[in-house]
Amino acid sequence: MIKFVCDDCGHKFEGMDCEYCASVYTAPVKCPKCGSWHTMPSGIKGFFKRKIYNMIWESIDERQGNTE
Ligand SMILES: [Zn+2]
Question: Which of 8, 12, 15, 49 is most buried, judging by how many CB atoms fall within 10 Å of its CB?
């Protein structure tokens, strides 16, 4: 279990640490508070990694048919 932070509501919670599509990045976990998938490990800092997570979130949204 690792700490996650929700990008939408800022909620911090613990979740499973598993790799996203066999990459070195941790797969986002659904926020227990607002239900958003736009979450990332709370240790993540820096513009580059944020960009990576933006791409991951986009592909998750696509997979769910959510074009929001
Ligand atoms: Zn949230």
Answer: 15
